[in-house]
Structures are given as C-alpha cells and as structure tokens.
Amino acid sequence: MSQSAYVLKRSKRRRTLGIKVTSKAEVVIQVPHTLPQEKIDRFVSEHQDWIDKKQSAMFKNIEEKETLLKTQFIYLGQLYDLRESDSISEILFDDSSVFIPTGTDEKQLQFWYKQRAEDILFDRVSIYESFIKAKPDNVKVKKLKSRWGSCSSNGDISLNIQLVKAPMTVIDYVVVHELCHLVHLDHSKSFWNLVESILPDYKKAHTWLKSNGHLL
What we know:
Strand content: 15-25%
C-alpha cells in the first residue's frame, strides 16, 4: 500500500502528532516542530488505512456535490431543478425549478448567493442577538473554508455564505451558536445550555448539518 501525499505542518507549540483530512480530501499532518521526518513517515504509514477510508469518503462527497450542482440548485434547504431560459434577465423560482438566464456563469450564481446570504443572515443575527446579553462588534458574511461560522475573542462574528443553502432552522442554529460564543468562548456545558435555552431543538439542526453539510 503506497503512502498518501500530505501537507506537513510543524508547530513549536504542538506536543503530539495529528492527522486531518480536509473536505477537499487533502491530508494534513500536524507535528511538533523538531520531530524527525522518519518518525512522521512511520506515523503516516501506521494510519494509512484510516487515511484511505477518510479520503474515499471525501472523494465521494465531492463527486456527489459536483453531480448535484450540474442539475440542481439548492436554496434554503430545498432542491430545485436547474433550468436556463433565454427570456429572463434574473433568477426566478417556481415550486420545483429555478430558472437562470442563459449563459449565467458560476461567478454570477455565487454573487446571487452572497446577496441572499447577507440579507438573510444579517436579519437572523438581528433577531437572535436580543436573546444574548452581549452583542457582536461586527458581523461578516463571507466564504469560509472549513467552518460554518466563527466568533473571535474580540466579539467579531463571521458566517459562511453557503449557509443560505441550508434550511432556516440550520441557519438559526449556526447564528445562535456563534452569538452564544460572545458569552462563552468555549463549548462548555454552560455554552450548550445557553444554546438550548434559545433553540430547544438545536440538536436536530446540528445533526442535519453533519449529514448534509458537504452538499452545501
């Protein structure tokens, strides 16, 4: 069995070895700064079966998403058949289909998603921030590589544009999750109790995101 290619990240703070397979099926090995290369290679070889399984799952997710995006359009948790039309100049919906102007490219679709994401996510933040004693200093909607949202120690919240493809219950969960980090910057019991006090069914949204997030 051949050893996987990987990205090596050394850290002076790190004391143990770790492996991560990203959503793009890239293998990242995290190691202490001075660890010899031979020990790193041995570590990777010992975990090759696990790496192969994770990469296989990620490649399957990538293929599934690429196939989906060729024929369907995802918006607020609903799948629409994707159709082009010569007679329209903007994106239009009916119950089962979304119609886009002929020649619309991926950049234009992403701009549409970004506009909708900003409208919806800013609105949901304004609704739920009234439940939290602390308020965010700044809220940004942008494309995040590996997170649905983040909250900095400075009180800045970032939300992933791709959330606009998820059901509203999932959007609300991520928004509330990040707002609660303004009070508890960890995932302690107190943090989850606060989340649950605002969204009693948050676990359903959390499960949906874990199962379907790779399609967004």
